[in-house]
Write a structure and sequence with these properties.
This protein has about 350 residues and is α/β, with parallel strands linked by helices. It has two domains: about 260 residues, Vaccinia Virus protein VP39 (Rossmann fold, 3-Layer(aba) Sandwich), CATH 3.40.50.150; about 80 residues, Arc Repressor Mutant, subunit A. Helices cover about 40% and strands about 15% of the residues. The protein has 14 helices and 15 strands. The N and C termini lie far apart (about 45 Å). The protein binds S-adenosylmethionine. S-adenosylmethionine binds next to loops.
Length: about 350
């Protein structure tokens, strides 16, 4: 499950960033600082092995993607190296994968010698969080086009916040003031500790240079197993869009086409009444874009980074409803656009004019 999201994201991301229209360097880098082995004892393949296999099936990636694998345990790095070099076509990779067995540090990232202009994706899948520090994230986000994903064993962080023995690790993660604020919020909102941790982590990552923070909660096994989060950090609207699309497809529940981001294994309890989320988006758009004219694509690009769940199709639906209620003006208008499956299309090129705040168009 966790491998699935990262794997799908890396393939979609690499295809976009290797497009010569956006990338003059001709390369992109996948950097896995905690890569683990090739396969596990039960035969399951690790995320890096799955990614390497998929890369070999795509000529564009065979030509352009550089892969760096690191694990502090040399026997795991060796197992991964052997399995990747045994894959059919491994020899065709234009950039031979590079392997190291070092602690994941800023110095290790520097030693890769990647230009700040090369698009880079970092996968940080440590068992704990000790080495995934704001400083490491700050170094990653020095790159012009970069993003990363890591796993948060959220219940362990919640426990560590109140544990005096974990104070140093928590100060490193949240800073002195951040940790104090976190503890105060635990006292004020004792039933919302998970949300509080995510809010504080988001702020710590923003201060470290990562403006976009997209959490994906998941629970494997029975309903009693602990909830964990895959956290995506990005700095470009397009990367966030791709990750939201992947998370949408992995989500267990949707309400009126809007994903409730998250995955639960086993039976899911559906609420009896889930309000339609689209009207809320309609009101937000009327306020946010009051008095402005923009294309559907521009509206989406500018606004979707402000929320964790709405996708392009949700914006198209919200704008279609605003148009039908004569709350916005569109060019081409409703009657000039084609229909698909009985619904008028709302392509990214349609221009939308919003009324000044408080007025209808
Ligand atoms: C959760 S596993 C990686 C699993 C792998 N990403 C996958 O999806 O199959 C975490 C790995 O991090 C390695 N590790 C732990 N601390 C490390 C550190 N400080 N630097 C580099 N590797 C580390 C461990 O040896 C372990 O193999």
């Amino acid at each position: 499950m966790k491998a699935d999201i990262v794997y799908k994201y890396v393939l979609a991301w690499a295809a976009i960033v290797l497009n010569t229209r956006y990338n003059s360097t001709g390369t992109a880098a996948y950097v896995d600082l905690f890569s683990g082995p090739g396969s596990y004892d039960d035969g399951a393949r690790s995320t890096p092995l799955l990614i390497a296999e998929a890369v070999l099936k795509k000529p564009q990636l065979v030509q352009g993607l550089q892969m760096f694998f690191n694990d502090i345990n040399p026997s795991l790095t060796n197992s991964l190296r052997q399995e990747i070099s045994g894959l059919a076509g491994a020899i065709t990779l234009r950039h031979a994968p590079r392997y190291s067995s070092l602690p994941a540090t800023i110095r290790l990232i520097d030693s890769l010698g990647l230009s700040l202009d090369v698009p880079q994706f970092y996968f940080l899948d440590q068992f704990g969080w000790a080495d995934i520090t704001p400083d490491l994230v700050r170094r990653i986000f020095k790159n012009r086009k970069c993003d990363c994903a890591f796993f948060l064993r959220t219940p362990r962080v919640i426990a560590a916040v109140s544990n005096p023995n974990s104070r140093d690790a928590m100060v490193t993660l949240f800073g002195d003031t951040g940790l104090e604020s976190l503890r105060q919020s635990f006292r004020d909102r004792p039933r919302e500790k998970e949300i509080v941790v995510l809010e504080h982590l988001k702020e710590a990552m923003r201060l470290a240079g990562a403006p976009y923070f997209q959490p994906f909660p998941f629970r494997l096994g029975d309903g009693n197993s602990p909830k964990q989060h895959l956290i995506y950090l990005g700095k470009h609207s397009k990367g966030l869009e791709v990750m939201k699309d992947v998370m949408d497809r992995s989500s267990t529940m949707h309400h009126d086409g809007v994903p409730q981001m998250g995955y639960t294994e086993g039976p899911v309890q559906h609420g009896l009444f889930n309000p339609d989320p689209i009207p809320g988006l309609q009101s937000e758009l009327l306020t946010f874009f009051a008095g402005r004219t923009a294309t559907v694509g521009e509206i989406f690009e500018e606004h979707h980074v402000t929320n964790e769940c709405f996708l392009l199709r949700n914006y198209q639906e919200a704008l279609r409803r605003l148009e039908a209620a004569a709350c916005v003006k569109t060019t081409p208008c409703l009657f000039e656009r084609p229909t698909r499956n009985g619904i008028v299309t709302m392509s990214e090129l349609v221009t939308v004019t919003f009324p000044q705040e408080g007025r209808t168009s």
